Every structure is written in structure tokens, then in C-alpha cells.
């Protein structure tokens, strides 16, 4: 009896293994295009990730090199005036220029754009444009350079 059970178990195991093998071959043969497509997709995705990492690492290296070049080429400049500059208060009152307009004019003289001035003063760009327009009108200037020149002539800017 034990012998029959052992034989039936062995034959059953062989049949199951044969069925699994034929089913595997059927799946591989029947769906070979999909399997190869998936394999190619996986390879391209891996290559893309590798290439992306390599490119971004090289950009970071370039940025660090540029930063080092900028720092190396920085030239210290001695201060021209020993004391801090004080704006001519009488001219400021005569023209009616507010403290905020004078502050915006000073930042314009430093070469900052409207966006940079807005960021530094924590206001919107439109507010900066309004201050600029009012200061330009009071100084009789049409452009930024004219306003800065006129401000220096009147003693409002260093």
C-alpha cells in the first residue's frame, strides 16, 4: 500500500512539473513580444535615470567651479568717504521726496532692478514702480539714470 502511494505521488509530481513547464513555455512563447518590450522599457528607464544623475552632478560641479571663479576674481575696494553719507534734508523737504522714495532712489543708484528692490524692501513691484514714478516726477527725470544723476547733484545720493 505504501508503495502504491509513493508511486502515485511520484507520478503526480512528474505530471504537475510537466504541466507547469509546458504552461511556462506557452506563456513565454505566446507573450514574448510583451516580455521583450517590458525588458527594453526597463533598460531605457535605467539608462535615463543614470544619464540624468550624471548630467545633474556635472552641472553642480560646474556651478561650484563658477562660484569659486567669482570669489577668486573678487576685488576689495577701499571706502571713498570716511563717514556715512547723510542726505541733504533741506533739498529733500523742498522737493517733497519722502523717506521711502529716497530709499528706493538709493537702491536704484546701486543698480538694483525693480524686482530686487521689491524683494529687499518687502513690497510689491507695483509699489516700487509707484515710488519710482513719484520720485522721478519730483526730480524732473524721465529715466533712472537721470534721476540718479539729479539726486547726486542735489546731495540726496552719495
Q: Can you give a write-up of this model?
A:
Helices cover about 75% and strands about 0% of the residues. The protein has 7 helices and no strands. The longest helix is centred in the first third of the chain and has 41 residues, at about 30-70.
Observed structural traits:
158 residues, mainly alpha, 77% helix, 0% strand
Describe the biggest sheet?
none
The Cα radius of gyration reads: 39 Å
Give the percentage of residues in beta strands.
under 5%
Distance between the termini: 113 Å
List the helices and strands and how they pair.
Layout: H1 2-30, H2 32-72, H3 89-95, H4 99-109, H5 114-121, H6 125-139, H7 144-153
Helix pairs in contact: 4-6, 4-7, 5-6, 6-7
Quick recap:
By secondary structure, the chain is an all-alpha fold. It has helices at residues 2-30, 32-72, 89-95, 99-109, 114-121, 125-139, 144-153. The N and C termini lie far apart (113 Å).
Amino acid at each position: 500500500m505504501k508503495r502504491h502511494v509513493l508511486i502515485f505521488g511520484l507520478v503526480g509530481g512528474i505530471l504537475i512539473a510537466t504541466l507547469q513547464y509546458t504552461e511556462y513555455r506557452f506563456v513565454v512563447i505566446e507573450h514574448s513580444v510583451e516580455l521583450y518590450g517590458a525588458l527594453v522599457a526597463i533598460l531605457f528607464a535605467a539608462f535615463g535615470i543614470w544619464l540624468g544623475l550624471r548630467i545633474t552632478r556635472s552641472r553642480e560641479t560646474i556651478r561650484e567651479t563658477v562660484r569659486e571663479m567669482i570669489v577668486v576674481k573678487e576685488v576689495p575696494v577701499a571706502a571713498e568717504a570716511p563717514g556715512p553719507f547723510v542726505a541733504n534734508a533741506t533739498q529733500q523737504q523742498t522737493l517733497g521726496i519722502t523717506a521711502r522714495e529716497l530709499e528706493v532712489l538709493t537702491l536704484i543708484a546701486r543698480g538694483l532692478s525693480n524686482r530686487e528692490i521689491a524683494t529687499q524692501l518687502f513690497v510689491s513691484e507695483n509699489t516700487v514702480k509707484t515710488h519710482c514714478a513719484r520720485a522721478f516726477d519730483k526730480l524732473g527725470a524721465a529715466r533712472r539714470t537721470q534721476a540718479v544723476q539729479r539726486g547726486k547733484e542735489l546731495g540726496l545720493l552719495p
